[in-house]
From TrEMBL:
<keyword id="KW-0067">ATP-binding</keyword>
<keyword id="KW-0742">SOS response</keyword>
<keyword id="KW-0547">Nucleotide-binding</keyword>
<dbReference type="InterPro" id="IPR042174">
    <property type="entry name" value="RecF_2"/>
</dbReference>
<keyword id="KW-0238">DNA-binding</keyword>
<dbReference type="InterPro" id="IPR003395">
    <property type="entry name" value="RecF/RecN/SMC_N"/>
</dbReference>
<comment type="similarity">
    <text>Belongs to the RecF family.</text>
</comment>
<feature type="binding site">
    <location>
        <begin position="30"/>
        <end position="37"/>
    </location>
    <ligand>
        <name>ATP</name>
    </ligand>
</feature>
<dbReference type="InterPro" id="IPR018078">
    <property type="entry name" value="DNA-binding_RecF_CS"/>
</dbReference>
<feature type="domain" description="RecF/RecN/SMC N-terminal">
    <location>
        <begin position="3"/>
        <end position="348"/>
    </location>
</feature>
<dbReference type="InterPro" id="IPR001238">
    <property type="entry name" value="DNA-binding_RecF"/>
</dbReference>
<keyword id="KW-0227">DNA damage</keyword>
<dbReference type="Pfam" id="PF02463">
    <property type="entry name" value="SMC_N"/>
</dbReference>
<dbReference type="InterPro" id="IPR027417">
    <property type="entry name" value="P-loop_NTPase"/>
</dbReference>
<keyword id="KW-0963">Cytoplasm</keyword>
<comment type="function">
    <text>The RecF protein is involved in DNA metabolism; it is required for DNA replication and normal SOS inducibility. RecF binds preferentially to single-stranded, linear DNA. It also seems to bind ATP.</text>
</comment>
<keyword id="KW-0235">DNA replication</keyword>
Amino acid sequence: MKLESITLTNFRNYHQLSLSFSSSVNVFLGENAQGKTNLLEAIYVLAMAKSHRTPHDKELIKWDSDYGKIEGRLMKRNRSIPLELIISKKGKKAKVNHLEQSKLSHYVGMCNVVIFAPEDLNLVKGSPGLRRRFIDMEIGQIKPIYIHELSQYQKILQQRNALLKDLSTKRSSMTAMLDILTEQLIELAAQITIRRFQFIESLRGWAKKVHASISRGMEDLDIAYISSTPNVLENMELSKLKEEFVKGFQTVREREIQRGMTLIGPHRDDLQFEINHRDVQTYGSQGQQRTTALSLKLAEIELINQEIGEYPLLLLDDVLSELDDFRQTHLLETFKQKVQTFVTTTNVDGLDADVINQATSFIVRNGEVVSQTQD
Ligand SMILES: Nc1ncnc2c1ncn2[C@@H]1O[C@H](COP(=O)(O)OP(=O)(O)OP(=O)(O)O)[C@@H](O)[C@H]1O
């Protein structure tokens, strides 16, 4: 798929802006704090109906404005599809083909994106929350129902945690209510876990291939999904998974009441990476950890193509200069013809000359695009 054009109204520091894009590489070039990342963020928000930088939608609206709007024209399966997302203080409205969607989960997934930002370089070494967010964002765009399941899980988890807290401080004695919430949580936990296992199984194959290629065949990457619930393992059927969750929650019940929180479930799970059978988080060099993060992102591109039948857009936020020439060239060359790419950078010096010569560059200054060079 390709994003043909975008129009921003009161989005971040843009009052009004319309851009048409090249179907290969687009570079947003400018000094710091001019609005380069804001442009990339606009594309991400148009696709995912939320920002990769902030959970607070109101930050996306231009200061002193009541609403912000992003319109885009997406070329997908040889059809040009108008997309529109309006963000106001009351909430968000999403339109496809000018028709308002009753649920955002019906909208997300129309346009697929893979973003690689500086914080993703910490995907391997950083906190488990970062890795869970990575899994959730990716499954969400391939299987939009997952977004709904996840938000239901979060709601019940919150209720359950509140009740456990009251039980721990003896403000409540409603253990029957705890049983009901546990049962509801298990239904969703099992469904979420099975989707995550399936996702990791598919991602693993692609990540192995990509990583072998970036490391010139020297390194074998393996990924495992580590469940916080004992005996919950890959390839288990849904009914078996549920049984293990039931047993797990029985085992931790007293401890949960003492501690006042839910101790097992998808919100505590993690990913583990091994290179040549050694744990990358513990033993990997910084370079290996970065290459692993890059391999995961590139694997995701292939996985989306496998599931959706079209390549996603690739958004690279200030990361090219963080990668050495070989990794940079690998990243851009592999997908040059297939994947429409958007890059932000303050300086083209660190970038591969061939790539720059073929790219369309947009010079960004103080919330405006002041010039554009075509390839
Ligand atoms: N809601 C908003 N309304 C108006 N301006 C905003 C809003 N949010 C952010 N800005 C402005 O946007 C600018 C930052 O833009 P952006 O994050 O795109 O920078 P950048 O060009 O990517 O810079 P860097 O290279 O430092 O990352 C800042 O000047 C900030 O004050």
